[in-house]
Amino acid sequence: xxxxxxxxxxxxxxxxxxxxxxxxxxxxxxxxxxxxxxxxxxxxxxxxxxxxxxxxxxxxxxxxxxxxxxxxxxxxxxxxxxxxxxxxxxxxxxxxxxxxxxxxxxxxxxxxxxxxxxxxxxxxxxxxxxxxxxxxxxxxxxxxxxxxxxxxxxxxxxxxxxxxxxxxxxxxxxxxxxxxxxxxxxxxxxxxxxxxxxxxxxxxxxxxxxxxxxxxxxxxxxxxxxxxxxxxxxxxxxxxxxxxxxx
Length: 247
Description:
This protein is of the alpha/beta class and 247 residues long. It folds into two domains: 1-105 and 230-247, Spore Coat Polysaccharide Biosynthesis Protein SpsA, Chain A; 119-178 and 194-225, Spore Coat Polysaccharide Biosynthesis Protein SpsA, Chain A (Alpha-Beta Complex). The protein contains eight helices and eleven strands. The protein has helices spanning 32-41, 56-64, 79-87, 107-115, 185-191, 198-203, 207-212, 232-246, and strands at 6-12, 26-27, 30-31, 48-53, 68-71, 94-98, 123-130, 144-147, 153-157, 174-183, 217-221. The strands form three sheets. It has a seven-stranded mixed beta sheet with strand order 5-4-1-6-10-7-11, with helices on both faces. It has a two-stranded antiparallel sheet with strand order 2-3. A two-stranded antiparallel sheet has the order 8-9.
């Protein structure tokens, strides 16, 4: 069997509302973007890792630690658009989009994800089960997903879905969406040509554009607990984890 060609793209934007320049923030002696790149590069199934950035400082930093980086237009609206631009002329079976603020992501998590991808779906993502009484289930900053019995995403929301109507009824099963995506190339190319959909504009969730346009999204369960770096406190938490692991 011919080995699949998997290209990973790490979009790395310099501007950030809550933590400007976070891609270059120090995480236990290394820039955040380097920590992410090292985790993705540890995958045995990914053929090529490309950092897609909009800023010369990030580009220069990536060259120092030996990553492949591509400068992209700062006007591009999303990481999905950056992934589409840098892979437009490349041949691949799947394109994996990894957010540049996921330093705890490891190669084995990506390998498990990639090994379960089904060609029946245009794209795929991950989800982690949450306790029914978890505060995260009610946190609008934590995106939830509900899926069909075949693993197809039915809806993503910032609300606690499914809603428990009866207090003495069945306990709901909540799943936190983990923002790592795999796309079949044709799906990615088409997705970025579509305008923001009505549900996307309401919830501010780009994946709803795919659903509203009929793109089937495979949702794969994972035990991976993500800590995306959005604040200075997030940065301290992940730095502490690396310091403990590398002591």
